[in-house]
Specification:
This protein has about 170 residues and is an alpha+beta fold. It has 5 helices and 7 strands. Strands 1-2-3-4-5-7-6 form a 7-stranded mixed β-sheet, with helices on both faces. A hairpin with a 7-residue loop joins strand 2 and strand 3.
Length: about 170
């Protein structure tokens, strides 16, 4: 099983490699297009990696345990500030990816466990949410197995606004 660790700003080249792989493998799963990601400069990737490892964002990556080894999974959690100050903090799960050769081996389970733990302990979130394409039955089933429930809310799917993204949420310990 690959090790799970934090993404650091110095990992920008690995982030770029895995992001391009993500966009090639599942282009409709992300807001960004592969062409847009390819056009970004090294400086832009360095800035992205720094932002993804900042105070309001935790990015977990799975790799082979050696410096510079290929990333085989990624999961990012960000703080979602409530509209009202009396409401509790909520985290949002974004940029979920497991490389094809690691699917079905428990890596997604491990990444999700660590992401939820970090959201609760470090971001002080009381719940975590994510959006899932309405026709992605595999993802819906995966998140339901991990305690997420659909909230009844939806939003237009960013890549195709004629489709919906269902909002799922689960409480954090």
């Amino acid at each position: 099983m690959p090790r799970i660790r934090r993404l650091h700003a110095k990992d920008w080249a690995l982030l770029r490699a895995v992001r391009l792989e993500m966009l090639r493998d599942t282009p409709m799963a992300y807001v960004e297009s592969l062409d847009a990601a390819r056009r970004q400069t090294d400086t832009q990737w360095q800035e992205r990696a720094a932002a993804m490892s900042g105070d309001a964002s935790i990015t977990l990556v799975a790799d082979g345990g050696e410096d510079g080894s290929r990333l085989c999974g990624l999961m990012r959690v960000v703080v979602k500030h409530p509209q009202s100050p009396e409401k509790p903090l909520q985290a949002m799960l974004i940029s979920v990816y497991v490389a094809p050769e690691h699917r079905g081996l428990g890596l997604a389970d491990e990444l999700l466990h660590e992401a939820c733990k970090a959201a609760a302990e470090e971001l002080a979130a009381e719940s975590i949410e994510l959006g899932v394409h309405e026709y992605n039955s595999r993802a819906l089933a995966f998140y339901r197995r991990h305690g997420f429930e659909t909230t009844g809310a939806s939003r237009p799917y960013p890549q195709d606004t004629s489709k919906l993204e269902l909002v799922m949420e689960r409480p954090l310990p």
